[in-house]
Amino acid sequence: MDLSQCSSFGLAVVVMFGGFACRCSARDPLSTIRCFSDLQQLARQRSTQSAPPRATLPAALADLPYEQYERISYKPDLAIWREERRTYFETFHRGFVQRDKVRVFAVTPSGTAEVPFQKANFTYGEQLDPALIDDDAGHAGIKLISTLDGMPGGQELLTFLGASYFRGRSAETRYGTSARALAVDVALNHDEEFPFFHAFWVVQPEPPESKVQVLALLESPSVVGAYRFMFTPDRWESRLDVRSTLHFRSPVEKVALAPLTSMWMWGDGLAGPPKDSRPACHDADGLLIRQASKGGQSEWIWRAFARQSYPSVSRIDVAQLRGFGLLQRNRAFFHFDDHNARYDLRPSVWVTPKEPWRDGVIELLELPGAHEGVDNIGAYWVPREQPKPGTPLELDYTVGFFAGDHGQQRYVGRATDFNLKRGESNDSVEIAIRFAGTAVAQMSEASSIHVDVETIRATVVKKAVERTDAGDWIATVTLRLNEDAPAEISVRLLDAGRALTEQFRYLCPPRTPEFVYPAVYTREE
């Protein structure tokens, strides 16, 4: 639907959804939104006002255990535009930890109309009596469902649920790593502020398009934002184009842009608990950064995840950021050996600014999570110059959801896996890193490949490199840890000073972390 020419409506509009009518008055500013410029104007006006209070969750919903909440679902036959469009949507019910009450609107050629909350649109399972639920309990978020060529039925490929979180996937993957619209004061010595989506506007797609536009109003005590999400679902790589205008009500200590969250319990470099036979347990196994070099070429940094016995924040300076993401690089089933969670099918999530983001840092937050049901990894861009009230911050970037490695990195040698062995004393460590890719596969055994190693709080004792029959190269580095603190390690392969591989980075714990794991791990989705 072409909304390039958008304008406010008259007194009211009436739109039919699934057999029920909803009416919106133009006196409600949210009901007049037709396009992104309307929303930008509304956000600018609201930035001079205090943030709206967050709704209280009724006791019957707040006390719901997870098992009962997950049984509440929207009736598929009542999904909005299900019979009319290739992409349609449903809403989420409030309850459990989903406390925010969001308003949901549908934008069609007939106008903008609010989607009312109705208990009759949901199934509640056998253990929950709908009579205990308030009639105005409200929506918690939305999910987008697409019908794709060659795929059976409708595929749920994008959700907005909780604070400013959203999760996407391609049709050949499962949900894993999540994203957020914005993070405020994350990883500091005081409480983080969580902006939340106050309202959504889903714009009806033009047939036969499956691409869909979602507008969203972000609110928090410090900031108000207008967001436009253009979602292109796909079997192999779904894409979310994001534009936003942020107005800060008050100064913030740290704003984190395009934040990603994921889970890593164990895998390369760390064995799991004795009672769990799975070799690895994670939604992503590393942070990949693409930056521009002085000559304009791309430089790639791969930071493999680690676990310390305490929260850890790593900062990577970047002059020109071309992209970053949390990747599920290892997709072999035997790497996880998990028939329920199927971590081998979790997507990689990649952020690409429309124009390089300049002069800032990528922060990687690693928490010692207790179990795999909780995200313990975060990555985000922090500009050195923080935004100020009175000066809007404009963002324009793309979030891609796909399987495995980044497509534009296939020529570069990639650290596909690594092993870590400790000596009899904790201060001796051997790391063996396997590099694979076209650049290294073309090198013969007679090549003069140099193992370039940089360390902090560690001394290189020995290093070597060996070519495998498959054309991969394994770099082995033996280190002596100099302090009772994590050692920073960087390894790459060079040929006559030319980089053949990405830069492998790792934060090596001074000893094997000790954790008390719960008896049950796997989360079924």
Automatic annotation (TrEMBL):
<dbReference type="Pfam" id="PF04349">
    <property type="entry name" value="MdoG"/>
</dbReference>
<dbReference type="InterPro" id="IPR014718">
    <property type="entry name" value="GH-type_carb-bd"/>
</dbReference>
<dbReference type="GO" id="GO:0030288">
    <property type="term" value="C:outer membrane-bounded periplasmic space"/>
</dbReference>
<keyword id="KW-0574">Periplasm</keyword>
<feature type="domain" description="Glucan biosynthesis periplasmic MdoG C-terminal">
    <location>
        <begin position="36"/>
        <end position="506"/>
    </location>
</feature>
<dbReference type="InterPro" id="IPR014438">
    <property type="entry name" value="Glucan_biosyn_MdoG/MdoD"/>
</dbReference>
<comment type="similarity">
    <text>Belongs to the OpgD/OpgG family.</text>
</comment>
<dbReference type="GO" id="GO:0003824">
    <property type="term" value="F:catalytic activity"/>
</dbReference>
<dbReference type="InterPro" id="IPR011013">
    <property type="entry name" value="Gal_mutarotase_sf_dom"/>
</dbReference>
<dbReference type="GO" id="GO:0051274">
    <property type="term" value="P:beta-glucan biosynthetic process"/>
</dbReference>
<dbReference type="InterPro" id="IPR013783">
    <property type="entry name" value="Ig-like_fold"/>
</dbReference>
<dbReference type="GO" id="GO:0030246">
    <property type="term" value="F:carbohydrate binding"/>
</dbReference>
<dbReference type="InterPro" id="IPR014756">
    <property type="entry name" value="Ig_E-set"/>
</dbReference>
<protein>
    <submittedName>
        <fullName>Glucans biosynthesis protein G</fullName>
    </submittedName>
</protein>
<dbReference type="InterPro" id="IPR007444">
    <property type="entry name" value="Glucan_biosyn_MdoG_C"/>
</dbReference>
<comment type="pathway">
    <text>Glycan metabolism; osmoregulated periplasmic glucan (OPG) biosynthesis.</text>
</comment>
